[in-house]
Amino acid sequence: MQSKDLLQLAEQFGSPLYVYDAEKIKSQYNRLTKAFSKVEKLRINYAMKALSNVAILELLRDMGSGLDTVSIQEVLLGLHAGYSPEKIFYTPNGVSLEEIEEVNAMGVQINIDNLSILEQFGAKHPNVPVCIRINPHVMAGGNTNISVGHIDSKFGISIHQLPHLVRIVENTKMNIVGIHMHTGSDILDIEVFLYAAEILFDAARNFKNLEFLDFGSGFKVPYKKDDIETDIEELGKKLSKRFNAFCTEYGKELTLIFEPGKFLVSEAGQFLVKVNVIKQTTSTVFAGIDSGFNHLIRPMLYGSQHHIENISNPKGKERFYSVVGYICETDTFANNRRIPEIKEGDILSFRNAGAYCYSMASNYNSRYKPAEVLWFEGQGHLIRAHETFEDLIKNQISLPLPAKV
Ligand SMILES: Cc1ncc(COP(=O)(O)O)c(C=O)c1O
């Protein structure tokens, strides 16, 4: 996808606009499966929280991917996108027993992350195959909000509670078929994965009926040219070897599962915005765009640095800008960023806008959510129309007050 294509899409569908490249998603999927080709049974469950547009789910389903879901609504979307229940994995956190039972009744693999629900579920449904989410207490991840395996994290059952966990399983005679962990996002050092894997293997030795081990995700993707990223090929080589050795020790060919979100879709996405205003102040030059944290909250939530290109003037002389949104609070996307000279009306592209961008968008300031386009086989396909005023009011109910004359 070239800049001229992006400019044409912005012209055709208006801005702001999310655009995703199907080829990039496919090549990332293939890269991951190739890196682990030495593992006999490999399964990739796309973490759909990253980007849940049905067309993206269909694209990945077509490639053979499974789905990682965190809510019953994600499960319903997955079923709607044509995934069979056996291809869907459900890893909720802090949800009710009722929701877990409802998802289980749909034939979806459930993953339980606390002892209280495990005990209640096991007592009622001892024959259901269940996966357990372990918290290995490994400090990993690029930001405290996305580091989920550490000691203070709310996720998973602490590895220190393993004796209690085993006792619950023995008492209820539950059928534990899988062990899962996910230590965080943006993990650079593959040693972290390998170290956490050993903890998972240790836990797995306590269960005799396993079918799979789920290593979660957390692969770091590059955010700009020459940026650091998880060395997937190296991880594939080392972890496959270790995993295969564990299967031999366990006496069974287990399935190795990963549930990547960012790795599959982050780099495939671009967010196109138009510059409404150039505002020179005593301290900086603001480029005010036709969007805000209502459409892309990651820079404000995680401090993530999305590379910004001026695709209307890519060869322009570079100047320093603060790129800001139109929201009624400070929503700075980039501070003092060198960008080719920007004029009002120019189209800027935010890179790495595939993961956790649209899926975190809101209607704050009563703005519409933007449209989404999938670049597929050399053409832009509208996969979600932008919202309209009807969308804003459709679930709102007025008070039955007498009409004022
Ligand atoms: C349990 C679980 N699995 C997978 C993911 C996907 O992580 P990433 O987008 O870093 O690949 C997350 C992210 O929050 C997660 O919580």
Automatic annotation (TrEMBL):
Gene it is expressed from: lysA
Protein name: Diaminopimelate decarboxylase
Cofactor(s) recorded in Swiss-Prot or TrEMBL: pyridoxal 5'-phosphate
Family assignment from sequence similarity: Belongs to the Orn/Lys/Arg decarboxylase class-II family. LysA subfamily.
Species this protein is from: Flavobacterium frigidarium
Pathway where it operates: Amino-acid biosynthesis; L-lysine biosynthesis via DAP pathway; L-lysine from DL-2,6-diaminopimelate: step 1/1
Pfam families the UniProt entry points to: Orn_Arg_deC_N (PF02784), Orn_DAP_Arg_deC (PF00278)
Keyword annotations of the record: Amino-acid biosynthesis, Decarboxylase, Lyase, Lysine biosynthesis, Pyridoxal phosphate
UniProt catalytic activity: meso-2,6-diaminopimelate + H(+) = L-lysine + CO2
Complex formation: Homodimer.
UniProt key word Lyase: yes
Taxonomic lineage of the native organism: Bacteria, Pseudomonadati, Bacteroidota, Flavobacteriia, Flavobacteriales
Tagged with keyword Lyase: yes
